[in-house]
Amino acid sequence: MQYTSRFLELNIPDSFLNINKIPDATKFIAIIYICLTTSLFCIRRSLYNKLSLDDPNVDYNLITLPILQMVPSQIWRYPTSLILSNFIDTKAWKVVVNLLNLIIGGSFIERNWNSSKEMLKFILVLGSVTNVLIVALTLLISLFSNKVRLDIPLDGNYTILIGFPIIYRQLLPETTIINLKTPHFLAKNFRFKLLPAFVMFIMTVTQIIWFHHFAQLFSIWITFFASWAYLRFFQKLVPLNCPSLPTTNAQDIQETLIGDASDTFQLIYFFPDLIKPLLRPIFNFIYSVVVVKFGILKPFQNVDIDISNSIAESRGAKKITTVEERRRQLALQVLEERMVHP
């Protein structure tokens, strides 16, 4: 879909908007999401109407359903909420955004992954593991701060809102979404690779300035790092045919490709250039501890990086030239010039 005016250009790939046939996992998740979110709204509204007859000042936000909603103080009695909260939302804007994101974006992702199992794992398994971490961190912080309330539900469904933009960046890195033409000082070519940083900025500022809910702020960032880490190190897919791959043995590719070892998918490239010098030594230290010292993660081999780079470039990602490569290219250029003009 393309739209052009004197102010902006809108460009969204037709493959992204193709929802003629919603894949199986996306359809299943969407149906469960609609059913559980609607059920939660109806039950809470019914309880509110009954309670308001006795107490007109009853707070609707304090009416909870712990079997679906992730209430830290009730998590021991209702551990099912760690899973079911992946399929519910209580805010109207989030219901609309997540539903559109799921039906349109989820269909696109599942078709590209060619795996209903991976779609279910990403939303259900990764989302549930993230919820466990969020609840544990909230309970831990409550031991040191009385400001953390354990009777208020935590939003356990950020995987679609936070995780999907990371996948869009992976699959459509250099594809332009919006190209602002005027005014000139705001002219910007907004691409999918900028989407995760944009979403994280908006969500972070919103929580800090308006909602002051720091447990939710932790939830947003934990979901971000967990989604990236899964895609980077753990996801296993049968890659689509790519003529630029350095091998033609499908079995070797399948065994080698675990995660995304491409240079462009490094965590540092999700952040603005302004803070990269500050973050780089931190990320390098974490990598040296997690991978090198304790061996928690298996380091990528050169063949992993080469294959992932080839796939990333086939998706449109620009090749990252390191300082060493630039020096090598410059040395070769100087050598060629000397050979031509001795």
TrEMBL record:
Main subcellular location of this protein, as a coarse class: membrane
InterPro entries in the record: TMEM115/Pdh1/Rbl19
Record's bilayer topology term: Multi-pass membrane protein
Keywords: Membrane, Transmembrane, Transmembrane helix
Pfam entry (one): DUF1751
Annotated compartments: Membrane
Transmembrane domains' residue ranges: 25-43, 122-144, 156-172, 192-211, 217-234
Domain of life: Eukaryota
Protein name, per record: Uncharacterized protein
Protein species of origin: Saccharomyces uvarum
Gene this protein is translated from: SUVZ15G0490
